[in-house]
Write a structure and sequence with these properties.
The protein is mostly helical. Helices cover 65% and strands 4% of the residues. The protein contains 14 helices and three strands. It has a three-stranded mixed beta sheet with strand order 1-3-2, sandwiched between helices. Helix 2 packs across helix 6, helix 5 packs across helix 6 and helix 7 runs antiparallel to helix 9.
């Protein structure tokens, strides 16, 4: 007989995970104090300036009024350690409700097991912390009015603009245009955050139960599954590194969640460029150099392997598939027609429709 996990005790020690991640994360690009101060101030200014531009270019209307400062939510300029702490907080907020549901089916982990899980998650967050420029987080610590927060990772922005020889003001505004578009998506569709949590929760519940069964499976079966998964990951055949251990219904649910994420990322990518050179003078140069970086041009072999293990290649596919969907829909029904996607959950594209935008147009617009 297994002992249920008490509601107050999570399956993973998130506090320790955040501490490990913050300790392990490398600090990133260094600069004199006055330059760092200018970077932080520049990012805050860019985040504020971006709001008006994304409102104009997207033609979207937030469900609630803008904040008194004209923003869509709180803006935090953080270092890599700060990003890991914020994401540990966000991940806990998303997973705790799921764990409460499946707790009765999961044996109470030992202290060593919880520490091992914390070390694994902390190490993953530390690795990812060097690869994120900005992130809109609707889950971690929303304010009293329920709005999310925008995280801008200062050392990563500095590192990329230096590595690609970009105009700092243009690049910082370009990054903020993307992230503020995400903020506007959630502000325009206030049901979106709960919708995503619900779908991810359903998937995680199934995966957790599958994992419990996997933990009880014979050693040879565990080795076989892990071996097949790693082989497919190295061949680039997985949607994510988890895909190889998902049941068929879980794979289908993951595909539908991925379709929504592709919409969010592709829409933000299209809109950040649609603002155009009138606002971001070097936007075409930024896009060209950034795409080469995304494709891994000049990256060491270890970086290529890490991208696959962390699922970064799948993330890049989301940007491109989603952007192609957005452009194709706009060609047929215009930007206002595209914005029907934010009106209700039923109007979100399915995995099939992301690949066939005409099917979405027929279903939603007739």
């Amino acid at each position: 007989m297994t002992t249920p996990v008490p509601a107050a005790e999570p399956l993973l020690d998130w506090t320790t995970a955040a501490q490990i991640a913050a300790r392990v994360a490398r600090p990133g690009a260094a600069a004199p104090r006055d330059e760092l101060d200018a970077l932080v101030a520049g990012l805050r200014t860019a985040a504020g300036d971006a709001v008006g531009h994304v409102l104009d270019v997207t033609r979207m209307t937030p469900a609630a009024p803008l904040l008194p400062d004209g923003g869509l939510g709180e803006v935090l300029v953080v270092d890599r350690a700060g990003w890991t702490r914020a994401n540990a907080q966000s991940m806990r907020a998303m997973t705790d409700p799921v764990m409460a549901v499946v707790a009765a089916d999961v044996p109470l982990p030992s202290g060593a097991a919880r520490l091992a899980g914390a070390a694994e998650v902390g190490g993953l967050l530390a690795l990812l912390s060097g690869r994120v420029l900005g992130q809109f987080d609707p889950y971690g610590a929303p304010g009293p009015d329920g709005r999310g927060r925008l995280l801008l990772v200062a050392p990563n922005v500095l590192q990329v603009e230096q590595a690609l020889s970009l105009r700092p003001r243009d690049f910082r505004l370009w990054v903020c245009l993307h992230e503020q578009t995400h903020a506007l998506q959630f502000a325009t569709a206030p049901w979106l955050a709960d919708h995503l949590v619900g779908r991810v929760g359903d998937l995680m519940s199934g995966v957790t139960r599958t994992s419990v069964a996997m933990a009880r499976a014979p050693l040879r079966e565990k080795v076989a599954v892990v071996g097949r998964t790693l082989l497919r990951a190295l061949r680039g055949e997985l949607v994510t590194p988890l895909d190889g251990i998902l049941a068929p219904d879980q794979q289908r649910e993951l595909q539908e969640i991925t379709a929504v994420m592709a919409l969010l990322e592709g829409h933000a990518d299209v809109m950040m460029d649609a603002v155009g050179p009138r606002v971001v003078r070097s936007v075409r140069t930024i896009r060209a150099r950034f795409e080469k970086r995304r494709d891994g041009e000049g990256a060491p072999a270890l970086d290529v392997v890490l991208r696959r293990v962390l699922g970064m290649d799948a993330k890049l596919a989301q940007y491109r598939d989603g952007a192609a969907f957005v452009r194709a829909v706009e060609e047929r029904v215009g930007r206002d027609g595209l914005n029907a996607v934010w009106s209700e959950p039923a109007h979100l594209p399915s995995a099939r429709e992301i690949a066939d935008p005409r099917a979405w147009v027929r279903r939603v617009h007739g």
